Fold:
Amino acid sequence: MSVMVPAPAFDDAVTRFGRMSVVDVGVHLTLTSEWVTPRWRPVLPPHEVPSLVDDEGYLLPDPHDLFARGISVDEAVAEARAQVAVARQAGLEPSYLDEHMGVGWLPTLRDALEALCWASDLIPAERYPYLPDAGEPFATRISGAPSGVHVLVTHPGHDEPELRRVHLRDGRPGEVARQRDDERRELVAAPLARELARPGIEVVRFSTLLA
Structure:
């Protein structure tokens, strides 16, 4: 499970994940803030990472905005390092780092983030391929995966008032909540459980991959 350190529910995530010894916690590197509401700022003071923020000090909405701005890789790595530090200071023990909105495609950034991971005793999650999402059920995506280690990315949530307020600029309130509630239901449904129990399928933790 990944946590977004700059996001408003970080403290709640620390409380919940701190009690879960059966799962690995990762830092979901957050260099963008895409929702109309809520929005968030970097962990570092905005004046220390000017290439990452708008005039109000909020992170830019999309990696393409960072590309157009001319992102400073040094600033991005400094913010990543700060997010990892805040997670650890809060009592979490992250074992991996992954990327919000796949921001590592920006020039030279992924290599810099991987170097930060190895120096910080974190596994760079992006070294493992993600199962492609073409609208298929999770069970279908797993059954069609080639041999090897793959990451299944999910965003489960509950269709409730707080999540219903979350939406993109071209979206409508409530859409995200419904989609993420559907994912939550699918994750606990019988078809996925049967697929995961099939011979040759093993669910592993990031912390065991390099053991």
In short: The longest strand covers residues 26-29. The longest helix spans residues 73-89.
